[in-house]
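Handout, section B. The chain below has 81 residues.
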Amino acid sequence: MIKKIFGSTIVFVCESTAHCSIHRPTDIMLNNIVDDIVKSNYVVDIILDPKGIAGHTLKSKLGGIVTDNNEEFDNTVDNYS
């Protein structure tokens, strides 16, 4: 698994499938996150965002689901190799 850090946001990437999960995105880093995911051709599975604002912005640009459930997010990331 690859971890990419954008400020306080972490993007977890499965190396074998190029699927990724975004942990607690912040408004300040949204453009950097979007640019990197698009450039790298990653597929977003899930976005953990308790407040939902940045997460829904990312969802509209990249897809995936937005959740505030840590366990659901962790289960997704645990499936990455």
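Note. Residues 46 and 56 are 11 Å apart (CA to CA). Compare this with the example in section A.
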